[in-house]
């Protein structure tokens, strides 16, 4: 039986999710934070298939009811953040039924484009990991979803990490030019938020605000500045209080090519290592983008690949 989410589905949904998506485990805390407390959560957009008294599959569909920034509700867009079918119930057409239900939901709400799974603020993964979930990837293709680009997740072991001499020398050169790399302090909080809001995606500003309001220390945010002008930043431990999760991280367009990003990255990794963290990881960058190449040169390894997919209804 296909139906929408109802009271009492919470724990069975988590159990079925974990049996279906073993590489992306769900906890009670994550379920609450990223699903129930999401400002765009709508039980009518969460579909479940019930079979033999058990949840055999599920799908989370969202539209924006609260703007991510300003007043833009993105009226043409919808998102599927996750879907699954329990291994015990596969090859019965349940995945097709879930995706058809999502299409109907989005069409009733006059959406034109549906993305999987690049939703802000509470995405689980950037897209489909075809190595982990080849059947899910094929199912999305069958329903008209096509890759828009590929994102990679990366990890780095921090045991014994040291800032190399060439980065230290580069930092000395930039310091002579008036640049400073330092931990965020109270006088620069407003300037840093304004800088991020101007230079980057509004979700990054939201991420910094959320981190600071949930108790992340100012010391976990490093900034680059030229005199009093903020020109770059990086953060760790800002998502879900997971200390080893690195990012977001960026440098002003006007300051790119100066090596400030490289200095920020290495100094942030150094600080993480000194605080006893053994690894640094993140979920999303482009392998061939400048940031992706910087991470690779710093010793990060690609651990997963995701196809960011979308379809036009």
Q: How is the topology of this model organized?
A:
Blueprint: E1 2-4, H1 10-20, H2 28-36, E2 46-51, E3 54-62, E4 77-85, H3 94-108, E5 113-116, H4 134-142, E6 146-157, H5 165-176, E7 179-183, H6 189-199, H7 202-213, E8 221-226, E9 229-236, E10 246-251, H8 260-274, E11 279-285, H9 290-297, E12 301-312
Parallel strand pairs: 4-5
Antiparallel strand pairs: 1-2, 2-3, 3-4, 5-12, 6-11, 6-12, 7-8, 8-9, 9-10
How would you explain this protein's 3D organization?
- With 313 residues, the chain is of the alpha+beta class.
- It has helices spanning 10-20, 28-36, 94-108, 134-142, 165-176, 189-199, 202-213, 260-274, 290-297, and strands at 2-4, 46-51, 54-62, 77-85, 113-116, 146-157, 179-183, 221-226, 229-236, 246-251, 279-285, 301-312.
- It has two domains: 2-148, Gcn5-related N-acetyltransferase (GNAT) (Aminopeptidase), CATH 3.40.630; 160-277, Aminopeptidase, CATH 3.40.630.
- It has nine helices and twelve strands.
- The strands form two sheets. It has an eight-stranded mixed β-sheet with strand order 1-2-3-4-5-12-6-11, sandwiched between helices. A four-stranded antiparallel β-sheet has the order 7-8-9-10, with helices on both faces.
Rg calc? 21 Å
CATH homologous superfamily identity of the largest domain: Gcn5-related N-acetyltransferase (GNAT)
Do you know the CATH topology of the largest domain?
Aminopeptidase
Which CATH first-tier class of the largest domain would you pick?
Answer: Alpha Beta
Helix content: 25-40%
Oligomer: single chain
Enumerate how many helices there are, as a single number.
9
Order of helices and strands: EHHEEEHEHEHEHHEEEHEHE
Main sheet: which strands, in order across?
1-2-3-4-5-12-6-11
Structural class: alpha+beta
Q: Unreliable runs, pLDDT <50, ≥5 residues? A: none
DSSP summary, beta strand count: 12
Number of domains: 2
**CA-to-CA gap between the ends?**
25 Å
For the biggest sheet, the summary is:
8 strands, mixed
Strand content is 25-35%
Mean pLDDT: 95
Query: What is the molecular shape?
Result: elongated
CATH architecture of the largest domain: 3-Layer(aba) Sandwich
